[in-house]
Fold this sequence. Notes:
Layout: E1 5-9, H1 21-29, E2 34-41, E3 47-49, H2 56-59, H3 72-75, H4 96-101, E4 109-113, H5 118-130, E5 139-142, H6 145-154, E6 160-163, H7 169-178, E7 183-187, H8 193-197, E8 205-209, H9 214-222, E9 227-230, H10 233-242
Parallel strand pairs: 1-2, 1-9, 2-4, 4-5, 5-6, 6-7, 7-8, 8-9
Antiparallel strand pairs: 2-3
Amino acid sequence: MKRPLIIAHRGASGEFPENTIQAFWEAIKQNADIVELDVQLTLDDQIVVFHDEGVERIFEIRSDKTIRDYKLKELKKFDVGSWFDKSFSEMKIPTLEEAISGTPQNASLIIEIKGNEDKLIYQLLDVLDNCRKTLGLGYISVKNSETIRKIKDVTSKHQIGLMQKGRTPAEFLNEMYENNIGIGQIQWRNWAEDDWLLLKDVEFKVNACCADELDEFALLCGKAVDGILTNFPSRLSAYLHRMDY
């Protein structure tokens, strides 16, 4: 049986505040093969690790502002842990450089780009170069093939993966084939049995987002996906161990 990779979605985000250095460390301790995180730009063009475009959910404030509306020093005044539990009230938003330096150098990362802004793409590549960071089993995760072309125009150092977001399974697979993309991330909950048949004998890797329950793990393992994104890497690790993967 093929063992799927354990991909910690925003770190061990089921047990710790998402996209924080502690969540990344805990994921590694819980046997995650890859840590997935999200990046976007601040008003002063600093790359921070944060998922939402808006700030309301994590900062627990009523606001229509986005991360792009704040300078980094302003963002550092907020805590990014209290929304999850008050015991995490000291946590601050990390920059990508802080996330890389704050985790093992050999940690595999999936870095999801939030948006298609050229400046974000180029600065991301610069940070990876400056930190001498390779992504290991991971890759740069994007929403469209245009972003893939922009990255490939600059470097061939890093693997690139395409997310299904906004596409039917057939549309997604067509784009994968047309652009010769090596890794795809599917939103598996919307896949019918006929859709799964389209994956038979594909030559690219398929990661499934997201799964947290035992029956979901069983289904995805049965479909022989290459990786499973989960908010509970310890739970998936225990399941794979128990099933002798």
